[in-house]
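Repro case for the chain-ordering regression, as requested:
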Amino acid sequence: MSCGFSRETLALHAEGDLPDSEAAATACHVASCEECRRFLEGLRVTQRVLKSARSEAASRSDCTAMRHQVMTILNERSGALGWGLRLERAVALGLRPSYGFAAVLLLGMVSASVLAQIRPAAYDILPRPEGYREWTQLPSADRVYMNPPSYRKYAKTGIFPEGTVLVWEAAPNSDGARAHATSSTLLVSFKDAKFEGGWGFFDFSGSGGTPLARARALPDSKGCRTCHRNNPLSMGV
Amino acid sequence: MGNSSVLIQTALSMSRVSDESPAAETADVSRLVRLTLRGDRTAFEQIIVRYESRIMTLAVRLLGRRDDAADVAQEVFLRAFKYLHRADPRRPLEPWLFRIAVNVCRDVMRRRQQRQATFVDDEAVEPIDQSSDPCAGLERKQQRLILQKALERLPEKERLAIVLRDIEGLSTADVAAILHSSETTVRSQVSRGRLRLKVVIGQLMGVDS
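-- result from build under test --
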């Protein structure tokens, strides 16, 4: 092809897809260029093949079978729309906008209230961390382990990130064990903005040295928060 | 059910290529949509009757297989029933259904690509429909197969643009709306697709392109 005229432009010109000004210029060029004229004719042949497919349609029997299948499914699923879609539909069907707004507002308030009640309950109980002895061990007289992703951030910033879990195993007769008045202690600190002061405290120490599988967040009356706040050795935990 | 069969017969008589003016058709479909949203399933069946052929045909053109096309059309109408309240009653329903069909077809194409990456896919391309005249149909059938093979060789975006613009005959603006794209992008895809098809069809027909 020696002519450098844009083939893409010719492809659009073949079906009148160019803006008027460009179409006029293209027509002018094609009139004077034998090569482009032949190329355009070739394109029009292909376009005719494409358009020949317009007259074809899917068979009626296929359509009917498909329709029956759809209606059967819909009849079997009668009333299976979720609440969200039902509400959307109710609004679309002509509920007054103010009613719709009130309904959405009410739904939002109820959801927020329910979530506020559910969320703390879900966070208040923590399962015992699995495999914590494989975590990063911090230098301490006691054995203190920290979940590795949080440790990596802490090592860079010096700040405990949200989600930090510190597991503390008391060494016998250590200062920590004496401070917590026990010799079989397994305590966990969990950093989450939900807790007052940003930390929740959990005691997994079970009777007879067997740790508990789950523990509830210790209440403020246990004094954990106050003691940690006033003790510089707790490093802000 | 007697009433419903009368309604369906009426709808059948109006289906495929409607003689109604676009405004009258939109108004009528809008009425059917309202009835469906109020729980009238017969009205929805009439909507299916109106558009089933167009949707099935589009799916065959995009996917090349009748069985896949039937599954696609079924999914399109089930989704349409579920989200019918989101369709704009002031506008024709067909582009909205086309948009769903294109999305469903894209999912099928992606699954097919994944399957082809794992297994050898030796399913043959099927023609859309049959001709009652075997002699006259032979050339058409060959042409159809060539076209289908050529379309299958196009990249997905170009194939979608070409089928919607050149075979379905939609305007560039409608194609852009269906593909969630701009008119400039569609023009570019159509242009590249036409050039590629010219070469591929030329090769398949044994003609120098």
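Ordering looks correct now. The two ends of chain B are 57 Å apart (CA to CA).
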